[in-house]
Amino acid sequence: MFYSPNSVTLKHIEDQTITLLGNVKHFLIILNSLPIGSVNIYERGGASIDLTTPINFQTYKEISDQISSMVTKEFKQIDEWRYN
Question: Among 1, 37, 46, 84, which residue has the least CB neighbours within 10 Å?
Fold first, then answer.
């Protein structure tokens, strides 16, 4: 049986906006070339995920680790920018 993993990317859609939680970076979540939601990454820590397209739980489990690692990478870039 051939298994094709789901391909997830984050596409930066808007420059930083300022909120009570500091600067925010906005990204689209792209699953197999289709937008399924968005991620907001907050400069002071934390992120919010908003899925606008329903996906099944198994697919969400498969892509959540990928999204987490991409968000972690963005946090590291924010920290490097802040402290350099």
Answer: 1
